[in-house]
Amino acid sequence: MMDLLDALFISKENFPKGPEAVAARLGVEVCFKPLAGCAGWCIQNNNIIRITINNTMPSVRQRFTLAHELAHLLLGSKSEVRSDAEYFGSNHSEEKAADRVAAEMLLPKEEIQRIAGAPPVDAATIRKLAKKANVSPVMVACRITELAQPLGLVNAAVVSFKGDKIAWIWSKALTVPSEKARTLLRRTREASGGTFHLSSGAGETIFASAIDSPIQTCLFIQVLPVSTDNAQGRGQILIELGKWLFEGNASFRGQVNGCLSSFKATAGNEDIDNALRLFNEKYIGRWTGATGDRMRDPRGQKYLRLRLEEWTRRGR
């Protein structure tokens, strides 16, 4: 059987198809067919390993099922037959461990660092990460929760609701009382962009986002340190900078996006400072007058830096 560290390395090298690469390397037979009342299971018979996945579920859930069953194989633990809605919600230690490994196979830390940047991670960035990794936004939030401190957060939690009651909480250390969770969920629903932040009694900032999926409603809570200057997420900052930079000029936005797309391969070989310098040297002279002034303005440069950071060597 493959070593767990080897499997995680293979997953990272083959992102966003890490679990599929691990299954192929292990020689696992993966079958897709309709299943009644469960997401999938794994059967080992002598040297044959077969994972069966319910193909009536969304593709992102099928991929998590594959990663979860592979995690049980790698950990040497017994897999339970359970409904898809219970992922991240089991109280069994072996299931929780498999969920953690599955999430790591699907979304390596380096990808989160490159796209999300400095915390907090807002709802728009979570959706972007989910799309790139072909996973659910709930899984992204749970993965970020596992990496809270390495990403620069004090703490984090994902709270899943069933109606107005808490179904489960995914967190290493953060306790969220039911009434407070319901209040935060209501405030995020009312807030622009589905995100809400407030100062805690300890001087820290609580940043909450509503994350929905077809089978559950979740609240993603991030606790930011006192030193955090801006409680906005990266995605929201980009949106606001973009509004200022382009002022509704679709042609100007298209030109900048085209240049950034053409520069993507170059940026992938540079750190962010060199990438921004090279981009400016190659493209900034194309814009004159008011558009040129905005591109050279610190706000325009910050917009370019945030966009280029997705592709540069930062965090790899």
User: What percent of the residues sit in helical stretches (DSSP H or I)?
Assistant: 40-55%
Strand order of the largest sheet: 5-4-8-7-6
Shape: globular
Give, in order, the helices and strands. HHEEEHHHHHEEHEEEHHHHH
CATH fold-level topology of the largest domain: Beta-Lactamase
* Largest sheet geometry: 5 strands, antiparallel
* CATH architecture heading of the largest domain: 2-Layer Sandwich
The number of helical elements comes to 13
Distance between the first and last residues' Cα: 28 Å
Stretches where pLDDT is under 50 for at least 5 consecutive residues are: none
Which structural class best describes the helix and strand composition? alpha+beta
Radius of gyration: 21 Å
Number of structural domains: 3
Please give the number of β-strands: 8
Q: Which percent range describes the beta-strand content?
A: 15-25%
State mean pLDDT (0 to 100 scale).
89
**What is the CATH level 1 assignment of the largest domain?**
Alpha Beta
Structure notes:
The protein has about 325 residues and is α+β, with helices and mostly antiparallel strands. The chain folds into 3 domains: about 5-105, Arc Repressor Mutant, subunit A (Orthogonal Bundle); about 115-225, 2-Layer Sandwich (Beta-Lactamase), CATH 3.30.450; about 235-310, no CATH class. It contains 13 helices and 8 strands. The protein has helices at about 5-15, 20-25, 60-75, 95-105, 110-115, 125-135, 135-145, 180-190, 235-245, 250-265, 270-285, 290-295, 300-310; strands spanning about 30-35, 40-45, 50-55, 155-160, 165-170, 195-200, 205-215, 215-225. It has a 5-stranded antiparallel β-sheet, with helices on both faces. It is globular and about 70 Å long. It starts with a helix and ends in an 8-residue tail after the last helix. The relative contact order is 0.09.
